[in-house]
Design goal:
The complex is a heterodimer of chains A (567) and B (96). Chain A has 567 residues and is mainly α. Chain A is built from 19 helices and 2 strands. The two termini of chain A are 37 Å apart. By secondary structure, chain B is mostly helical. Chain B has one domain. The chains are: A mainly alpha (567), B mainly alpha (96). The interface between A and B is large, with 57 and 52 residues.
């Protein structure tokens, strides 16, 4: 990829602004509440954009592009049946407890609702997971800059890690949120022209459909398998994902997506920084509106890439093959940037890509330093110190979190599709968690012992299920089967969805059974923590377009429409 | 007091947009072969410039999108809760 001085200048301008935001915010970081929660003073539209941006790391941009090429438009299920309904649910039903309980983190809510051990388990597994995710982001930066710009892997990791370190260290959560908003606009402005040019090259939507039909038939599927999202979900063998509608709706739509969007502190932390209860509830709903159109920004380029590879367009774009002969899906978006963008615009596109990695990483780092400081350090190591001490600890945790991510980046080199790897981790940790929250928030009878044992057995069930099954064509090892080999799934994705379903169901059942056998808490203690014992937040004073319920209805209607249009 | 996020975003997009637009007059037209003959630098530069200026205008007009905890109602509630539960000792902030 040939960059000129113009592209480097654009990249440099971005770095200057990123660091500048950190330095400008430094003097506002006076207390730990400023550093970890932005003083709970941010308007909803900003926390909303940060809410999607924090998740828009390596996994989304590279992974969704890759999946778009590999599975076609069915990848949009991650949005239209996955993320959006879950975001509506967390905004309408769960935010009143997260925000209203004055918990400062998701694990802390578990402490208030259940007990110390449930919080401890969640805090520790979550801290490990964020470091891992942030490591994956770093790893992706290293690979990408290496293959595109010829930068050294170690050098790329170092640059990205140091920049994120500086701005989070200085400006805390506010700095991360501000940079996420900046990155949101960069992604939109960097990728829109790419989609426009790619689509034009492929002959518009109808031209793309024709080309994708040849992709589908040459892979042994019906012509519409890449361009119709629901039609071929009746049977796992008739779609490239290798999943059927039930596994998709339950595994991805219900368990994994709700598990992620409703309980992952990485995103929930953004909503918790909002300046009022209604702003916190609107955060995921505002986020859902751009989110539902993101498939056109990140999945569509992958679909265009594979279509043009099978049937070349006027510009001659094609995906390269890897040494083993398979196509290099992960490079779909980066290579398209290099192919369609002339110098100048190329600088913008690459900057957008780098920005997404860095803010994905920063999101994890801010979630990590908060959970570490509030839920591990303040709870188990040093309680009742001064506010300044915890502020200092937050900064130290930032440094440590970044160092650990760098270490994780060197570990994260085994899966060929980053998405599948993250889904696996989420299935182990997050899938059972959603059952715990569901019961915790909506069933006042559920108890701490029930929640803890439910979580434990859910995570255990995920591991056992993964250990007993294998995706088609995989060898025993990190892909599963290490306990024995009972069942073969048509694809790794199907295996992940079902791992999640088993984990969730186990946690749900065990929590109920143990709760019924143990002593419930006094109802008085659960006020503000459980649905039936909490006053519904009043919306009467808000303008209609600011009411969460109105927004939710609009979001769900639009999502339904998208599902139908691309059925 | 504080920093409105729209100010730096607006400034950055305005600078980058202006840079692209200006550069498009000096760059050899050959390079637009890859972008299917469209001068993306010029057109998208204009779009980014307009977006940047709009954001900058609103950022300057409205002021701030974050407040220090001491001025935030919800932020103060959190600190009060920290003191009530004994998670933190109640000392007056030494910066004040």
């Amino acid at each position: 990829m040939n960059l000129t001085i113009l592209d480097w200048v654009i990249m440099l301008i971005y770095f200057v602004f990123v660091l500048g935001i950190g330095f400008a915010l430094k003097r506002y970081m006076k207390t730990s509440t400023d550093f970890f929660l932005s003083g709970r003073s941010i308007p909803a539209w900003i926390t909303g954009l940060a809410f999607i941006s924090a998740n828009l790391g390596a996994q989304e941009v590279i992974g969704m592009g890759a999946s778009g090429a590999k599975y076609g438009i069915a990848t949009s299920h991650f949005y239209w049946i996955g993320a959006i309904p879950a975001m509506v649910f967390v905004g309408i039903f769960m935010m009143p407890f997260y925000y209203g309980s004055k918990a400062r983190s998701v694990p802390e809510y578990l402490k208030l609702r259940f007990d110390e051990k449930t919080r401890g388990f969640n805090a520790i597994s979550f801290a490990a997971m964020t470091v891992f995710s942030s490591g994956v982001s770093l790893y992706a930066v290293g690979l990408l800059l290496g293959s595109l710009l010829g930068w050294d892997f170690n050098f790329s990791i170092l640059v990205a890690a140091v920049i994120v370190l500086v701005y989070v260290f200085l400006g805390g959560l506010t700095s991360a949120i501000y940079n996420e908003v900046l990155q949101f606009f960069l992604i939109v402005f960097g990728f829109l022209p790419l989609v426009f040019l790619g689509l034009r090259d492929a002959g518009g939507w109808s031209g793309l459909q024709t080309r994708l039909a040849t992709v589908a038939t040459s892979n042994g599927f019906a012509p519409g398998a890449w361009s119709e999202s629901w039609r071929f979900m009746g049977d796992p063998s008739s779609n490239p994902m290798g999943v059927e509608w039930f596994g998709l709706a339950m595994g991805l739509g219900f368990v994994l997506s709700f598990g992620y969007w409703c309980t992952d502190f990485l995103v929930v932390q953004r909503a918790m920084a909002a300046d009022s209860m209604s702003a916190a509830r609107r955060t995921p709903l505002i986020a859902a509106i751009p989110k539902m159109f993101f498939p056109f920004l990140v999945i569509l380029p992958g679909m265009i890439a594979i279509a043009l590879t099978h049937q070349v367009g006027q510009s001659g774009f094609a995906l390269p093959a890897k040494p083993d002969g398979s196509l290099n899906y992960d490079m779909a978006i980066p290579l398209m940037l290099g192919h369609y963008f002339p110098t100048g615009m190329l600088g913008v596109g690459l900057t957008a890509l780098i920005a997404s990695f860095m803010s994905g990483m920063a999101g994890n780092v801010t979630a990590f330093n908060t959970v570490w400081t509030y839920d591990i350090y303040q709870s188990y190591i040093k309680r009742g110190a001064s506010d300044q001490h915890y502020l200092w600890m937050g900064r130290m945790a930032t440094v440590f979190g970044i160092l650990a991510s760098v270490a994780a980046a060197y570990v994260a080199t085994r899966f060929n599709n980053i998405m599948d790897m993250l889904q696996l981790v989420f299935a182990f940790v997050n899938a059972p968690l959603f059952a715990t929250f569901l019961l915790g928030m909506f069933w006042k009878r559920s108890t701490g012992h029930g929640a803890f044992l439910g979580l434990l057995s859910g995570t255990f069930a995920a591991a056992v299920h993964h250990g007993l099954t294998l995706p088609k064509g995989a060898v025993v090892g990190i892909k599963g089967g290490w306990f024995g080999h009972l069942h073969t799934y048509p694809s790794e994705m199907a295996q992940n969805f079902w791992t999640a379903i088993f984990a969730w169901t186990t946690c749900f059942v065990v929590t109920i059974v143990i709760s019924l056998l143990t002593k419930p808490r006094e109802q008085e203690e659960l006020r503000g923590l459980v649905y039936s014992l909490t006053e519904k937040p009043s919306e009467e004073h808000l303008a209609w377009y600011k009411r969460p319920v109105t927004l939710a209805a609009v979001v769900l209607f639009l999502t339904l429409l998208l599902n139908i249009i691309f059925w | 007091m504080g920093l409105d996020i729209r100010t730096p975003i607006g400034l950055m997009f305005a600078i980058v947009g202006a840079l692209l637009t200006v550069a498009s007059f000096f760059l050899n037209g050959e390079i637009y072969h890859r972008s299917l003959g469209i001068n993306v630098n010029f057109w998208w530069g204009i779009v980014m410039l307009v977006f940047g200026l709009t954001m900058f205008f609103f950022g300057k007009r409205d002021g701030s999108t974050v407040k220090p905890t001491a001025e935030s109602l919800e932020g103060l509630k959190i600190e009060a809760e920290e003191h009530r539960t004994g998670a933190e000792v109640n000392t007056k902030n030494e910066n004040e």
